Amino acid sequence: MTTPACGSTLLVARPVARPAVLTASWTFSSANLSVPQARHAIRAQLADWDLHHACEFAELLVSELVTNAVAHARGLVRLSVSAVGGRLRCEVEDASPCLPRARHARDDEECSRGLCLVQALSSGWGSTPTGGGKVVWFELPVPAAVDV
């Protein structure tokens, strides 16, 4: 009769696949020129990540958020984008502490429609105060066929 060895341990480990996280960011001056630069940057980055299908909405919504930052903030504007787990998240950070709110423009107003557009076309959006300003963000779904 044999007795099992005392203190023996069998450890079985299996790696868990984590979704890849893709990130990029840019900093622009708060000048009107930064809006087309931001549109170009997001379009080029999404093409590089092979996320062409998200490009049209992302470019439009980034344009709206950067336009708001240019209009209401001073200093630098930072655009960040990340793709992970079936979603694309874009963030625009500026130095203004005033949090944005979506409001309905009157028929005779030329502005104040941007955040309603962001709300309608994104899967979610919001704003977060920071120590020196705020971050305004939106998310778009990335189809499951795309492995990011």
TrEMBL record:
GO molecular function: ATP binding; protein serine/threonine kinase activity
Pfam families named in the record: HATPase_c_2 (PF13581)
Cross-referenced CDD domains: HATPase_RsbW-like (cd16936)
Boundaries of every Histidine kinase/HSP90-like ATPase domain copy: 32-138
Domain of life: Bacteria
Keyword field contains Kinase: yes
InterPro entries, A to Z: Anti-sigma-factor_SerPK, HATPase_C_sf, HATPase_dom
Keywords associated with the record: ATP-binding, Kinase, Nucleotide-binding, Serine/threonine-protein kinase, Transferase
Name of the protein: ATP-binding protein
Naturally occurring in which organism (per UniProt): Nonomuraea turkmeniaca
Lineage per the UniProt record: Bacteria, Bacillati, Actinomycetota, Actinomycetes, Streptosporangiales
